[in-house]
Amino acid sequence: MARILQHEPHLKPCPYLPGVEAPVSAAAMREVRDDNYGSRFYEQALKGGQSLWLQGLPAQALLMFNRAFGADLNGDEPILDQWPLPYAASAWVMKHREEDQFIGNPRRHFQHLATRMVEPRKARRSARAWACWLMACQIFPDYPADEKQIAEEGVVEPSREEVFALLEKHGLAGEPEVLRIAEELVNRLL
């Protein structure tokens, strides 16, 4: 029997994610791997992010968006017309989380994700992590970078223009525009 989603009653669903009626479990994510991390996996990861957000777990929701960003999509899947890559969802969750909800340091998280990415689709996923890092820097301007990693590993934080160039080179057709729309959302929310 499916459980009803027990969420924080004061939290509104993220408008950039599909709705959910029941919690999305780790088992539900395993069930959709049979499509080789394609459309079904992507949609389930978005639903998982919504589920975690509604349970008051914004940091875990961001981790679920990382999984959605890792889906193996070509860009012509119908799901992307309805639910574009979760840049706007990531920005919305980072901005709407409450002070008592753990978010960690998204700037540092995305820096680490971008610089320590592994295959498959390493370049694409790294570019997406830098894009989320860019929004995290705007939303949390006082959150520090991992200066130790920067010094020891020679990490160079990309400029906004470099992030967009990475997405243009490695992302899906039109992906930089999806990030631009999310940036507009960030600017409205700040």
Report the count of strand segments.
Answer: 0
**Rg of Cα set:** 16 Å
- On the 0 to 100 scale, the average pLDDT is 93
Helix content: 55-70%
Helix/strand order, N-terminal first: HHHHHHHHHH
Provide structural commentary.
- The chain has 190 residues and is mainly alpha-helical.
- It has helices at residues 26-31, 39-54, 58-69, 78-82, 87-96, 106-115, 122-139, 147-153, 160-170, 175-189.
- The protein has one domain (26-189).
- It is built from ten helices and no strands.
- It is globular, with a radius of gyration of 16 Å.
- It starts with 25 loop residues before the first helix and ends with a helix.
- The relative contact order is 0.12.
- The model has no long low-confidence stretch (mean pLDDT 93).
Helix-strand layout with pairing:
Elements: H1 26-31, H2 39-54, H3 58-69, H4 78-82, H5 87-96, H6 106-115, H7 122-139, H8 147-153, H9 160-170, H10 175-189
Helix pairs in contact: 2-3, 3-5, 5-7, 5-10, 6-7, 7-9, 7-10
